Amino acid sequence: MPSEKKPRSAARPGPRAGRAARTKAPRARRAAPGAAAPVDEARAKVAPAPAAGTTGAETAAPKPRAARARAVHPGTGRTIAIQQYRSGIGCVVRHKRVLKALGLRRLRQTVVRPDNPAVRDMVGAIPHLVRIVEGS
């Protein structure tokens, strides 16, 4: 015969009794179409007033970034053509990343890159996958 259910006592509260009661701020109601939306002064951001002698349009628009000047290295006119002749499948992730950084995606694809120490080291890291086809 099954035993009777025991009423919950104060010593053994229910599953939600131990949690702290959370108080939420009341949600703002959506304004009716055509009506002015209520303004919450605590959350409203006040734009700074424009300086004397200027218009507000000058301060509101962000300034465009200056184009980044590329560093000029000696021998920038030289390039090398790199061809992928083996697949990167089965290689370690580092070798796959080097292939991607060189811009190689498929077999027998050739890309032209500047002949500098960085590119030479990348090719030297994966000599079993790529060949230098020609230098110009």
Q: Key terms for this structure?
A:
3-stranded antiparallel sheet, 136 residues, alpha+beta
What's the number of helices?
3
Question: What's the total count of β strands?
Answer: 3
Order of strands, widest sheet: 2-1-3
**Average pLDDT number:** 76
Element string (H = helix, E = strand): HEHEHE
Cα distance spanning the termini: 95 Å
Q: Main beta sheet, described? A: 3 strands, antiparallel
Q: Oligomer, anyone?
A: single chain
The Cα radius of gyration reads 34 Å
Shape: flat
Poorly predicted runs are none
Kindly estimate the percentage of residues that lie in beta strands according to DSSP: 5-15%
Fraction of residues in helix: 10-25%
> Structural class of the helices, strands and pairings?
alpha+beta
Describe the fold and architecture.
There is one protein chain. The chain has a domain at 90-135. The protein starts with 55 loop residues before the first helix and ends with a strand. The mean pLDDT is 76. A three-stranded antiparallel sheet has the order 2-1-3, with no helix packed on it. The chain is built from three helices and three strands; from the N terminus they run H-E-H-E-H-E. It has 136 residues and is of the alpha+beta class.
